[in-house]
Amino acid sequence: MVHGGAEVRARALVAAVTDAGGIARRATIVxxxxxxxxxxxxxxxxxxxxxxxxxxAVPTADPYLVAAARAGVVISCVTRARxxxxxxxxxxxxxxxxxxxxxxxxxxxxxxxxxxAVPLMARDPAALEDSIENALAILCxxxxxxxxxxxxxxxxxxxxxxxxxxxxLPFAPxxxxxxxxxxxxSDSGLETYVVPRLAWMKLRIVPQAxxxxxxxxxxxxxxxxxxxxxGHHVGKQRARDNAHDATLRHMGYHxxxxxxxxxxxxWPGVQALIMQAVAxxxxxxxxxxxxxxxxxxxxx
Length: 300
Known about the structure:
- By secondary structure, the protein is of the alpha+beta class.
- It has three domains: 4-60; 68-181, no CATH class; 189-299, Endonuclease, Chain A (3-Layer(aba) Sandwich), CATH 3.40.960.
- The protein has helices spanning 4-19, 26-31, 36-44, 63-71, 77-83, 132-142, 145-157, 163-167, 173-181, 189-198, 235-250, 260-265, 267-279, 286-299, and strands at residues 23-25, 49-51, 55-57, 74-75, 95-99, 112-116, 205-211, 214-220, 224-229, 254-259.
- The strands form three sheets. The chain has a four-stranded mixed β-sheet, sandwiched between helices. The protein has a three-stranded antiparallel β-sheet with strand order 1-3-2, sandwiched between helices. The protein has a three-stranded mixed β-sheet with strand order 4-5-6.
- Helix 1 (4-19) packs across helix 3 (36-44), helix 5 (77-83) packs across helix 6 (132-142) and helix 6 (132-142) runs antiparallel to helix 7.
- The longest helix has 16 residues, at 4-19.
- It is elongated and about 80 Å long.
- The mean pLDDT is 89.
């Protein structure tokens, strides 16, 4: 236990470590005016714990940060993206961390992947999470094209980075291709998959189009609406979506609504629905659809 003035100093020390994210380098805390003696006393009292000698943490510190400090790495790639609230494929469950190529032996848990790469942006020694720029660079080299594109577009959509700023960084050619293809308009990762997968159809596809007082995920042509449901489309949200679908149909739009599993695991089925609608001219206004039908009949 600590008493009197020592107790006041201990509380201030714990508050400083908590404000730093629950874990901080010992040297950083000392520079902020807390003595080694106060730190040692707090550790003995169980108010703080030592992680790899140079780090101190509160007992409730984020286990991801503690594990990163213990291993001498930073959280990066898809794990960093997920912690930032970016869209990441559901099956990207392993923990991804990063270290410099010349870092020594690194011991991590079995389900952890270590990326050894020179960072685009210098890493602060006191940081346990990579910058979003470094994390996206590693993610784009790690994940398949569509999954990486979805994560980048999610970052752009949330305004965590800007495309011009990203393009000024010295990305590898394959990573730069993903950045150049990204747009800030996709509201979910699933929407990112649609435009590249339908590009061969040479159709006008407008993401996040505004119709009847609400945004729709995609407007194909002038009358075909594609809506993609995520996990939040339940309860009141589902009721609002159904009501809007009904309004769209009354206005002459054809609505195709699909879910996460369909896009991820049965894309051919989703594409078939779109192809059938296009073949019937449902992506066109009524007059244009009739003219297209006449032309097809004459060609038969």
